[in-house]
């Protein structure tokens, strides 16, 4: 073994603790980034849901005044598509809400000592 390489079995408790602290810092940072990303996704999903709700209302109003079969079909189809997308936005919001709760719980768990 070269002089620059240490045998892991020979490392001191202080070195092991420092390594554990570095690992914990990286883990905490990674969890924080994942939490922030999920919060941003929640905000985007809420914005998209609000836009879709408004668009659905507008399409329903136009459907009431549609005066031909094609226009009726078009607005009904459009509304169905937007309702599916709205459900998708709500699912995304719920999933990422659960992820935020999980990540926050992980941050509360004390790290094991080495």
TrEMBL record:
Organism superkingdom: Eukaryota
- Annotated spans, Disordered: 1-23
Q: What is this protein called?
A: Uncharacterized protein
> In which organism is this protein found?
Fusarium sporotrichioides
Question: What are the top taxonomic ranks of the organism?
Answer: Eukaryota, Fungi, Dikarya, Ascomycota, Pezizomycotina
